Amino acid sequence: MRLVPRWTLLSSGCAPLLLTGGWTIAALLEGPAYDPVTQTISVLAAYGAQGSWVMTGALLALGVCHLLTAWGLRSAALAGRVALGGGGVTALVVALLPAPSSGGSLRHGSVAAVGFALLAVWPLLAADRGGAAAPWALRPVASLAATALMCVGAAWFLIEMQHQGAAGVAERLVTSVQSLWPFVVVASCLRHSAKEEPAPPGA
């Protein structure tokens, strides 16, 4: 029996493509006034930004992808699936609560922080304690490593924000890892399932 349906490859694989494609196109529409090294993704989706419609659409699509992947990833522990789905919901809310054109937004920042946290801890919560019998990306060591990497990336982002440094680079790194990991988990589950399927008679 397949651990996850094959369509989860599409939902999980589209997530990083939509996110990176969204911020790339939105930045091009914004022009040289936007600095991707120091400015965050939220600036691209802010009120009045030239590419806000692109970035908002990418965030909405990202949220839907995470929700679909969480629904289909039946081999992961329920707590992890809930956290991944919660990360998808926060992406939808962030898109619907864009930051103002200048200054900060407590609502936007709070929802984004919750999303970061949920997507950072979901690998650990999704871990399968079955040892070698589990898909490698759901084993405790791999799950812990993924969560640790995301937490380090988030800490780097906060440090860069405090010092007005390369916040844009740090945010893109951590969000790229967070959007890619569901695909890695799905791929490992499908590969594990294929290995366990019995050979056809006469093979």
Written account of the structure:
The protein is an all-alpha fold and 203 residues long. It contains seven helices and no strands. It has helices at residues 7-30, 41-45, 52-72, 78-96, 106-125, 140-162, 167-196. The protein is elongated, with a radius of gyration of 18 Å. Residues 199-203 have low confidence and may be disordered.
| Helix percent band | 55-70%
The biggest beta sheet, please? none
Report mean pLDDT, rounded to a whole number: 90
N-to-C CA distance: 19 Å
Low-confidence stretches: 199-203
Total helical segments = 7
Backbone shape: elongated
How much of the polypeptide forms β-strand, as a percent range? under 5%
The number of strands is: 0
Tell me the radius of gyration. 18 Å
Strand-pairing-aware structural class: mainly alpha
Order of helices and strands: HHHHHHH
Keywords:
disordered C terminus; elongated; 203 residues; 7 helices; mainly alpha
In short:
The chain has helices at 7-30, 41-45, 52-72, 78-96, 106-125, 140-162, 167-196. It has 203 residues and is an all-alpha fold. Mean pLDDT is 90; it is low at 199-203.
